Amino acid sequence: MGQRFDDHRRQEILTKINQYIEEYSYPPSIREISKMMNVVSSSTAATYVNRLINDGYLKKRDSRSRTLEITPKGKEMVGFVEEKNHGIPLVGTVAAGQPIVAEESIEGFFPVPDNITYPIDELFMLSVQGDSMIEIGINNGDQIIVHRQSTADNGQIVVAMTEDYEATVKRFYKEAGQIRLHPENSTMADLFYSNVTILGLVISLYRPVLF
């Protein structure tokens, strides 16, 4: 590469990338990394980046430009320690109607209510989409707090993953060799499955907007 690629060089590159992200709120391009590192060839900078990705210091979401992210290992290399967030992670959307895919990507954190005693690392929040649970007060747009667990008793409100890998919030019943997911909306029919995966038990909710 023309220069030794040791821990000092790794730290130098990662530090400059981190400084760029902090200044502009988005990652640099390969050309900009080349300029920052005073290397003539963009291919050399690309090689550096690929080495850092392979070594676990960087990650790239896809093939597009400006999708580099510094991993926790990379942040440790540059001496950046993230403060531990003491909130409940908000991780996407779940259906209260027809099942939809719920993708777990953290969108933010929510302060832990005083009346919840479960360990924080066993909790997550989902935004509700749909109106199948409105008759027990779970409305479209509400955010439900879920205790992560793989079992449930009959009659409990759960977030369940169906055999089609779709997540939904319903009242759970196991009966007669099948699973019945019951919507709390008298205009909707029960859903029947041979098996579902319980993702967690709904223990509370937050309503961002009252009116």
Task: Give the helices and strands, then pairings.
Layout: H1 7-24, H2 30-36, H3 42-54, E1 58-60, E2 68-70, H4 72-77, E3 88-95, E4 108-110, E5 123-129, E6 143-148, E7 157-161, E8 167-175, E9 178-182, E10 191-193, E11 197-206
Parallel strand pairs: 3-5
Antiparallel strand pairs: 1-2, 3-4, 5-6, 6-11, 7-8, 7-11, 8-9, 9-10
Helix pairs in contact: 2-3
What does this 3D model show about the protein?
One of its GO terms (biological process) is negative regulation of DNA-templated transcription. Its EC number is 3.4.21.88. It comes from Xylocopilactobacillus apicola. Pfam families: LexA_DNA_bind, Peptidase_S24. This is LexA repressor. This protein has four helices and eleven strands, in the order αααββαβββββββββ. It has 211 residues and is an alpha+beta fold. The protein folds into two domains: 71 residues, Arc Repressor Mutant, subunit A (Orthogonal Bundle); 119 residues, Umud Fragment, subunit A (Ribbon), CATH 2.10.109.10. The strands form two sheets. A nine-stranded mixed β-sheet has the order 4-3-5-6-11-7-8-9-10, with no helix packed on it. Strands 1-2 form a two-stranded antiparallel sheet. Helix 2 crosses helix 3. The longest helix has 18 residues. The radius of gyration is 23 Å and the shape is elongated. The protein starts with 6 loop residues before the first helix and ends in a 5-residue tail after the last strand.
Features:
2 domains, Arc Repressor Mutant, subunit A, single chain, 211 residues, two-stranded antiparallel sheet, Umud Fragment, subunit A
